[in-house]
């Protein structure tokens, strides 16, 4: 009779101890075993070398650490490298790595690993980083921690450039063994280690205790799922299927009414229209200019995004160093001028036909633009690109089939890099692939100007102006990140450049 | 046949609903108070008013006008699918009964293969292949409802084809066409009519599902499914927004099924079927 009672007491003591230990475990602010479910978008590739959209930095940076990273204001600060130093004429920069770094597969992350990783980006046949890494002529290594990038010409943008996927360091062991596996099985030294991945469905990552800033990572497990239907996001966060996601501005009242937290975070993202001037009738510059004046940007922001965002005529937000105030009214809405330009180009009202290409979640914008174009006599039809992690890339960036694509740049770590992507001769978003010598010279001048020089803002803004005036594509407005989160998740830090998770905690209550 | 349908209460109500929806579809362009595509950014997500009977959508378009325009497209699309299914199902079924074993074997295998294809995936694949249009999507749906017609028609035609009076007609020199037209077809019609009504409802559900997903339509074309998808994004602002398109879809499908039931249960038609079965 006494034996069962003893066992019962023992079980009670064990249960109480377990409860007490669990309660103590969350001392850092996050419950032990904290899982965060993030509804966002899966990257086009988990390999930074073959990733084909800037938006991927938000997810790729979960797995990879870069040599540098950007602070809240998008200024380069130490990452894997604890410091860097330029030579006198800006033609070489030496990065000093933090000590004792390793990749999640156990490979030492030393100067030689950095060299191999960057060289792969420069040389791999299908690399999409070649353009950005072209500024690096040679890479030399001194000891385990110093790696020197010898540049083709003075370029003070390199620390910024390497803060994103361009500087994301991949384990040489992994890509030497099987480079083709990296897009689905990445190995880096970022805040999380890759655990599993189902394409188009889900990625599971666990905290990497070897990350150089692991103390700031309070999330033990991160589950990433794509969200394709905005209508379901709030319900998903409310039900706990997701903990954090993003919503359009017009759903803010609904999210708040559902008892969820909403953070509007300024970002480098600027919506724009990619105009392919190689496809008729956009070969006529007057037609292209007419389209720039025909689009009522403020109406798009008000109607589609409930007033969240600002009209801009350049690919940078107000307040950022590259933002040129002189472009504030560059292509202000002027339907009469648009009609006149079309008439000058020989198009009577209704004669010009155009296809507006849009992704499946931006159809409202396309319908609004369609009516705005119709008001100046352009008959637009809408082509919806179906959802998928690479469908937009295949249709617009790589296929270059779109005349007039409603797109957006999430920004880049270096303003020169962003200008290159948007306006450069090989820029992903420059679907025309046309650039002028004046623009390239202006970009070169920016690269040669040290970031702490008083001339830097002026030189940079001049390059922006040249790009805006040259390009057939045009900006529409900023797109702040509207983050919706469960109350158990602490606020996300406000970084202009991307989502970051340092310091974010996940509590145990909803 | 109509008299048999309206003999029951369900049949009467179903016919009334279907006639009402058909009237909306036919007279929609004249009844619509506004241009269904005209946006008014100053009046987005407005509630019901004298100006906008059912309010406005996320781009300030008149919801009532869009529903009326959507009625035409949704119904015509469903009819199109059923028409394709009728041709591709009924004709091979009749031929399989009268043109020997080779045709019978081939058509049976073909229909079995079609039955294995999932509706939505096949429709999506067809629109990817032929272009994102309602015609293409409905062609796909029509192909997939064809086995339903095939099986019903064949089941009804088989006993008739081996009936003594049909054999007598053949011996008397009647051509296969005459046999089909005079002896087989009248016995098959009731079964085909039931299937047509039933599959019309099913096709409408498929059309609405596809357009809900944005397949088969090009914005800003209004359809019931497409409007439902848009309204669901603005539930907070317009909680009753999805109600009207959803009710229209449900009521129309219910009416189609009601007519199918009424046709099945109609005494005259039941007697026809019993005779056919008895003869077989």
UniProtKB/TrEMBL annotation, chain A:
Keywords: Signal, Transport. InterPro entries: Peptide/Ni-bd, SBP_5, SBP_5_dom. Gene3D superfamilies: Dipeptide-binding Protein, Domain 3, Periplasmic binding protein-like II. This is Peptide ABC transporter permease. PROSITE patterns: PROKAR_LIPOPROTEIN. Belongs to the bacterial solute-binding protein 5 family. One of its GO terms (biological process) is peptide transport. Residues 76-415 form the Solute-binding protein family domain. Residues 1-25 form the signal peptide. Its main location: other. Pfam families: SBP_bac_5. GO terms for cellular component: ATP-binding cassette (ABC) transporter complex; cell envelope; periplasmic space. GO terms for molecular function: peptide transmembrane transporter activity. The keyword Ribosomal protein does not apply. It is found in: Cell envelope. SUPFAM superfamilies: Periplasmic binding protein-like II.
TrEMBL record, chain B:
CDD domains: TM_PBP2. Residues 71-260 form the ABC transmembrane type-1 domain. GO terms for biological process: transmembrane transport. Keywords: Cell membrane, Membrane, Transmembrane, Transmembrane helix, Transport. It holds the Pfam family BPD_transp_1. The chain crosses the membrane at residues 12-32, 75-98, 110-130, 191-217, 243-263. InterPro entries: BP-dependent_transpt_permease (IPR050366), MetI-like (IPR000515), MetI-like_sf (IPR035906), OppC_N (IPR025966). GO terms for cellular component: plasma membrane. Belongs to the binding-protein-dependent transport system permease family. This is Peptide ABC transporter permease. The lineage of its organism: Bacteria, Bacillati, Actinomycetota, Actinomycetes, Pseudonocardiales.
């Amino acid at each position: 009779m006494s034996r069962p009672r003893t066992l019962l007491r023992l079980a009670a003591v064990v249960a109480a101890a377990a409860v007490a230990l669990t309660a103590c475990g969350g001392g850092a602010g996050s419950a032990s075993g904290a899982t965060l479910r993030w509804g966002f978008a899966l990257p086009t590739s988990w390999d930074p070398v073959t990733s084909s959209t800037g938006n991927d930095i938000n997810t790729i940076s979960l797995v990879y650490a870069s040599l540098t990273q950007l602070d809240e204001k998008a200024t380069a600060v130490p990452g894997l490298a604890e410091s860097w130093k330029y030579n006198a004429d800006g033609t070489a920069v030496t990065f000093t790595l933090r000590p004792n770094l390793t990749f999640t597969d156990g490979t030492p992350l030393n100067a030689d690993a950095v060299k191999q990783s960057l060289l792969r980006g420069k040389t791999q046949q299908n690399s999409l980083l070649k353009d950005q890494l072209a500024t690096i002529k040679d890479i030399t290594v001194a000891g385990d921690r110093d790696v020197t990038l010898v540049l083709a010409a003075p370029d003070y943008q390199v620390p910024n450039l390497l803060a994103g996927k361009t500087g994301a360091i991949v384990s040489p062991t992994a890509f030497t063994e099987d480079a083709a596996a990296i897009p689905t099985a990445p190995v880096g030294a970022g805040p999380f280690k890759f655990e599993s991945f189902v394409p188009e469905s889900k990625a599971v990552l666990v905290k990497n205790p070897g990350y150089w800033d692991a103390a700031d990572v309070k999330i033990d497990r991160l589950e990433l799922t794509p969200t394709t239907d905005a209508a379901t996001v709030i319900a998903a966060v409310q039900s706990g299927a997701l903990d954090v996601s993003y919503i359009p501005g017009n759903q803010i009242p609904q999210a708040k009414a559902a008892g969820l937290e909403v953070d509007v975070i300024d970002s480098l993202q600027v919506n724009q229209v990619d105009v392919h001037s190689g496809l008729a009738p956009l070969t006529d510059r007057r037609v292209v200019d007419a389209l720039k004046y025909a689009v009522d940007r403020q109406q798009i922001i008000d109607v589609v995004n409930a007033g969240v965002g600002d009209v801009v005529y350049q690919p940078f937000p107000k307040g950022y160093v590259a933002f040129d105030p002189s472009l504030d009214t560059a292509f202000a809405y002027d339907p009469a001028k648009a009609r006149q330009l079309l008439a000058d180009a020989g198009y009577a009202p209704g004669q010009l036909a155009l296809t507006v290409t849009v992704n499946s979640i931006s159809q409202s914008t396309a319908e609004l633009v369609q009516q705005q174009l119709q008001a100046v006599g352009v008959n637009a039809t809408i082509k919806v690109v179906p959802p998928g992690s690479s469908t937009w890339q295949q249709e617009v960036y790589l296929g270059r089939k779109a005349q007039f694509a409603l797109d957006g740049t999430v920004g880049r770590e270096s303003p020169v890099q962003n200008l290159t992507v948007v306006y450069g001769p090989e820029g992903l978003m420059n679907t025309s692939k046309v650039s002028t010598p004046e623009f390239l010279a202006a970009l070169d001048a920016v690269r040669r100007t040290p970031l702490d020089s008083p001339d830097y803002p002026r030189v940079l803004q001049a390059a922006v102006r040249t790009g805006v005036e040259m390009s057939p594509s045009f900006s529409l407005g900023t797109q702040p990140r509207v983050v919706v989160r469960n109350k158990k998740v602490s606020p996300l830090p406000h970084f202009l450049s991307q989502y970051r998770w340092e310091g974010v905690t996940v509590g145990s209550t909803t | 046949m109509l008299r048999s349908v309206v003999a029951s209460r369900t049949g009467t109500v179903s016919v009334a609903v279907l006639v009402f929806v058909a009237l909306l579809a036919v007279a929609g362009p004249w009844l619509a108070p506004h241009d269904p595509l005209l946006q008014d950014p100053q009046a987005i997500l407005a509630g019901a008013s004298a100006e906008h009977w059912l309010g406005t959508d996320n781009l300030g378009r008149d919801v009532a006008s869009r529903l009326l325009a959507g009625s035409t497209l949704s119904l015509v699309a469903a009819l199109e699918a059923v028409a394709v299914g009728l041709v591709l199902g009924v004709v091979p079924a009749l031929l399989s009964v009268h043109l020997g074993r080779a045709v019978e074997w081939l058509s049976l295998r073909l229909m079995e293969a079609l039955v294995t294809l999932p509706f939505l995936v096949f429709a999506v694949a067809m629109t990817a292949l032929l272009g994102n249009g309602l015609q293409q999507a409905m062609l796909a749906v029509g192909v997939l409802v064809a086995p339903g017609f095939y099986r019903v028609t064949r089941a009804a035609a088989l006993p008739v084809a081996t009936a003594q009076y049909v054999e007598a007609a053949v011996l008397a020199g009647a051509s296969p066409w005459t046999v089909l037209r005079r002896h087989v077809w009248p016995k098959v019609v009731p079964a085909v009519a039931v299937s047509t009504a039933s599959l019309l409802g099913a096709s409408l559900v498929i059309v609405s599902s596809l357009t809900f997903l944005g397949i088969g339509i090009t914005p800003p074309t209004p359809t019931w499914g497409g409007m439902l998808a848009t309204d669901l994004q603005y539930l907070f602002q317009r909680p009753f927004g999805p109600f009207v398109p959803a009710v229209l879809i449900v009521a129309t499908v219910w009416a189609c099924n009601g007519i199918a039931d009424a046709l099945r249960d109609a005494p005259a038609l039941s007697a026809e079927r019993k005779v056919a079965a008895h003869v077989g």
